[in-house]
Amino acid sequence: MGGRVVEHDQRTNGSMLGCCQAAVEQFLVEATLISSIGGIAGILVAMLLGVAINVAVPGFEVSYSTFSIGAAFLTSTGIGVAFGFFPARRAAFLDPVVALSRD
User: Fold this and answer.
1) Which of 20, 30, 66, 77 is 20 to 30 A away from residue 11, measured at CA?
2) Whether 11 contacts 91, CB under 8 Å
3) Which residues, including other chains, have CB under 8 Å from residue 5's CB and lie 6 or more apart?
4) CA-to-CA distance for 73 and 85, rounded, in angstroms?
């Protein structure tokens, strides 16, 4: 979350001022895409590790349920949306005088 807060705070130097709703929507879409891609990448890495373990350890089988895959994806996406929305909302509703005086 810290990186997202810094990113949004750095964008308050003029690019987010006066566009409250549009800015929040832009960062929400960005956060959703980034966290969804990260969730898919994490699931793929976990599946590849499972295949490697199945090959390396005879008699041991790694299996995944549809529920666990869906829960992992929804959790990563949900966390990304939450940590993208709240800093964007805070930065979008920041007083322009305060935002510009920070620099």
Assistant:
1) 77
2) yes
3) 87
4) 18
3-state secondary structure of 19: coil
Match 């929400």 to its residue by tokens: 28
Q: Which helix (H) or strand (E) holds 54?
A: helix 20-56
- Smallest CA-to-CA distance from 96 within 27, 23, 13 is with 13
Give per-10-residue mean pLDDT for the chain (103 aa): 53 53 79 94 95 92 92 94 83 73 65
Q: Rounded CA gap, 100 and 23, in Å?
A: 17
Are the C-beta atoms of residues 4 and 84 closer than 8 Å to each other?
yes
63: helix, coil or strand?
coil
